[in-house]
Amino acid sequence: MHEPTTAPNTAVLVSLDFGAPDYAESLEELKLLAESAGVHTIALVEGKRQRPDASTFAGSGKVDEIAAIVEQHAEHSEHHETPLVIFNHDLTPAQMRNLSARINTRVIDRTMLILDIFALRAQSHEGKVQVELAQLKYLSTRLAGMNQDMGQQKFAVGARGPGETQLELDRRKLARRVDLLNERLKKLKRQREVMRRARNRSDVLSVSIVGYTNAGKSTLFNRLTNANVYAANQLFATLDTTSRKLFLEGESKVQVVLSDTVGFIRHLPHGLVAAFRGTLEETAQADLLLHVVDANSPERHDQIAEVNKVLQEVGAQHIPQILIFNKIDLQDLPAGVQRDEYGRISRIHLSAKTGAGIDELRAALAEMRDAHGQEAQAQERPWHPLDD
After folding, report:
1. Phi and psi (nearest 5°) for 9?
2. Tens digit of pLDDT for each residue in 112-160?
3. Given this structure, which CATH class describes domain 5-108?
């Protein structure tokens, strides 16, 4: 008799259809999320329900189906490893505990999967602090369901409180760590504000690249700046904001600073938005947003709406945008620029991969830079009686 152990690189995906209109897109994103986390999917279990089961979310019949797949895989694996089970939903601590007991393997939900990817991708000190803060906030709501005996008194030397339970001690430890991380983020935010004030005092046009995850933001950033930012066909390939000077032709002395930002996704965990709010708020200080859209995605209009929703949350909804329809090479579409009825640039069709349309984008940015410089000069011009 072998005691099964969880195989971290294999998983059974579980997705239940409750009638949501974006179910198919959410399922495809789950597959991409698992792939981005380095997980090999061995099976996909689907089903339709009117509402989640209070005890196991999926119901006893579906749980038995999942357990059979897990058991069969464990029997045929070399070391009797059981695959991870990933739900495309948020589970309560009780549901997660009940499922793990019934299926006899580790069970995680969509939020835990996204948090794991963020932890994998974070490179900078600030990114790591933001991810840890989101993880701790998620964990703090689930302490009561993690161990059945947490309510019992822990009588270890040095860990006793005045009648405190282990659960209360754990909560206090988490609260202290959360406070420490929040203080670190506040310090980093103050440093960013100093840098931003320095940029504002100089002739700088601040441009931020935003968009749905995997739309090609980092590829476009690299194409424009000749940088070497990590870009891959994965969700959340970029977490840390990177800024570079962009050199454009012309006589204007205004500098252009281009920033690459984290991608968005539907049903993004609230804790992540809160933890990354400081970084995301940088977009609210930009002069221009390049909103990158995957022109090859059938859900591009919904993805645009999701990005705009997050931008509104961080107060960036009033920043001028240019929609960048990327990946036109996948549909053999021509590159080009579209203007609105006022003659302002509204859309650019391009391929960051092949370079088609990049010259048009650079020309558009030069146009925006010149307009920004003229506006700055007008604001600095001394008042004259004829102005009235």
Report:
1. -105, 5
2. 888 888 888 777 777 788 788 888 888 777 765 554 444 444 444 444 4
3. alpha beta
